[in-house]
Amino acid sequence: MFSTVFDAWSSLAMLPWNGMAADPPPAGTFASGRHEDEERVLQYRLFVPSGAGTGPMPLVVMLHGCGQDAADFARGTGMNALAEAYRCLVLYPEQSCGAHWNRCWNWYDQAHHRRGAGEPALIAGLTRRIMAEHAVDAGRVAVAGLSSGGAMAVILGRTYPDLFSAVGCHSGLAHGSATSSAGAMQAMRDGPDPATLAQAGPHAGLPVIVFHGDADATVNRRNGSGVVRQSVGSHAAHRRDQRTDIVIVEETGCTGGRKFTRRIHQEKTGGVLAEQWTVHGTGHAWSGGNLDGSYTDMRGPNASEEMLRFFMSHPAAA
């Protein structure tokens, strides 16, 4: 089934190595680990910045895309170097080939759509373990991902709003975009079906930052808009006892040779609910990433920097 349905994920062209030397590794530690629950084993990598132990630190959970592993995703996003500067932990759960032949997170399968089951429960359990073993600021635990990892990050934010404070989705899809492998291909090609999304049910809406290239031929850019609509809509539904007026502020710019449009969705009181970055000319690749990792585009706004800035400015509600 996977070989026919997900060829689109695995056939993506990686940008070529350009001969540039890789950035020096950050000063912290990047260790491997293994997490087990009653049904599955999950390998992971954990970056701990230098100087850890002097107080609680934020934690960012990073979910790689198809065809990647934890180390590759860390190289491509450059998140560890940023985490050293911001002094935060970064956890990289790693999908196994046994769970998916191409290491995709199973975002489209209904078995992984709800709290307490499947991959969301497994990743949430690992996150809680890291929080118990390290000094973590429980109010600043964010989750982000690319492609299938972006879709799974959205699911985690909606099913575990008590655990995570904010969500980052790069080239991913909304919760409930598909409930079958055939539906996954349709959503990736055409964008979200509102009727299908409605089946995901009501969930709390966490602050979300979305990146999507408008030249993405693997996951339709409409899916980025679907993530934003779903998150903002969930927030409004949970505030139905109060009037929630949303103001959209749009700005354009150019970074690293890529033009971009950023739309900020905020309440009139000033609270930001969502940031949507559309990077013009970018395909299915991490914006502003490093070429020593796969599925990256070194041009454009640095998605890692912008996500970390967003996460640091959106702690969990009291």
Notes on the structure:
- There is one protein chain.
- With 318 residues, this protein is of the alpha/beta class.
- It has a single domain, classed as Alpha/Beta hydrolase fold, catalytic domain (Rossmann fold, 3-Layer(aba) Sandwich).
- 30% of the residues lie in helices and 26% in strands.
- The protein has ten helices and twelve strands.
- The protein has helices at residues 2-5, 7-10, 70-77, 79-86, 118-133, 148-159, 181-190, 194-198, 222-238, 303-312, and strands at 29-36, 41-48, 57-63, 89-94, 136-146, 166-170, 208-213, 246-255, 258-267, 272-279, 286-287, 296-297.
- A ten-stranded mixed beta sheet has the order 1-2-4-3-5-6-7-10-9-8, with helices on both faces.
- β9 and β10 (272-279) form a beta hairpin.
- α5 (118-133) packs across α6 (148-159).
- The radius of gyration is 18 Å and the shape is globular.
- The termini are far apart.
- Mean pLDDT is 89; it is low at 1-22.
The CATH C-level name is Alpha Beta
**Number of helical segments with 4 or more residues:** 10
Classify the secondary structure makeup into a structural class: alpha/beta
Radius of gyration: 18 Å
The total of beta strands comes to: 12
The amount of beta strand, in percent, is 25-35%
| Total domain modules | 1
Globular, elongated, flat, extended or rod-shaped: what is the shape? globular
- Percent helix: 25-40%
Mean pLDDT across all residues, rounded?
89
- Provide the CATH architecture: 3-Layer(aba) Sandwich
Low-pLDDT runs: 1-22
What is the fold named in CATH at topology level?
Answer: Rossmann fold
Q: Would you list the SSEs in sequence order as H and E?
A: HHEEEHHEHEHEHHEHEEEEEH
Kindly report how far apart the N and C termini lie: 44 Å
Pfam families: Esterase_PHB
InterPro entries: AB_hydrolase_fold (IPR029058), Esterase_phb (IPR010126), Plant_Biomass_Hydrol_Est (IPR050955)
Keywords: Hydrolase, Signal
Protein name: PHB depolymerase family esterase
